[in-house]
Amino acid sequence: MKLFLAPMDAITHQAFRNLVARFGGCDEYFNEMINASSLLNNGPWEKFYLLEGPEAEKLVWQLTDKNGEKMAQAASLLAERGGIGIDLNMGCSAPQIANTGAGIAWMTKPIEETQAMVRAVKSALENAAKDGMPAKRLSVKLRLGGEDFTPQGFFEFTDMLIDEGVQMLTLHPRTKKQKYREHAKWNFVEELALRHPDIPVILNGDVKDKASFEEAQKAAPHAYGVMIARAAVQKPWIFAELKNMSRPDSGSVSAEQLALDFIDDVEKCQPAEFWKTRLQRFFAYYCLNFSFAHYFQTQMLNAKDNDDARARLKEYFEKCPDDKKVI
Questions:
Q1: In angstroms, what is the C-alpha Rg of the chain?
Q2: Could you tell me which residues come within 8 angstroms of residue 240 by beta carbon, excluding any fewer than 6 positions away?
Q3: CB 239 within 8 A of CB 232
């Protein structure tokens, strides 16, 4: 199975992708979602969302917006850049996204409205290719739907996506409000893959280690690949583990040095206004690897600035030297 890094807001920026690549990378990296309206307005931060490293040939741009016309216009701009595809976010159920009419709201709007948006984006990519731009794959990341979910309604929706030219589907098989304590319904990934055997279908949800990866493969043997989100933030080396690869030596990097290097990279790849939130999002998961996870996590989330974060890191590993060997 192919391995994919999931798009995660404030996480899958270039600094984090560099970290994953350090351990051999994955088959495709999905960028943190780009708001189409902000991109078209040439907002002050957009250039940081458009960084293509470390492997542009494996990068997928994910778009979000409530407006279908703006989604199409933004797709035209992204078609001029590197990367291998455009992904439409129809899965984010965070209130600040869904309540605006973006994310999973595209699954609950009148199907004709969503169909028109997908058709417009597909047309924009085809027109760009006719104008000499590299062809970009169109994909969709989605959930099972809203609280009125039915299998029939879900498959009618995915049939529409395929009919409109979507070339790959990533399914997080939970409904809009279903919590993570309930196991993802992987059987829907298998049913979707069997229903569209010529379309790559990616399983997303609840894969966090080798055991769960193997369980997912058994539950959905016809899936084209597995996409990993939070577990990849906790363990950027997880893709190497799943591929049975030995981890690159990287100068015998310690868990401490890896974290310090990440802070350095955030400073290089992100604006100063983003540094604090980007570090907080990363360390909320990375600290879970260690002996005193909650204490370490609290220390890092309360860091005043990057230099304070570095000092807190060094202090923790001085107190817990054995944790340096976690990697």
A1: 20
A2: 23, 24, 246, 247, 248
A3: yes
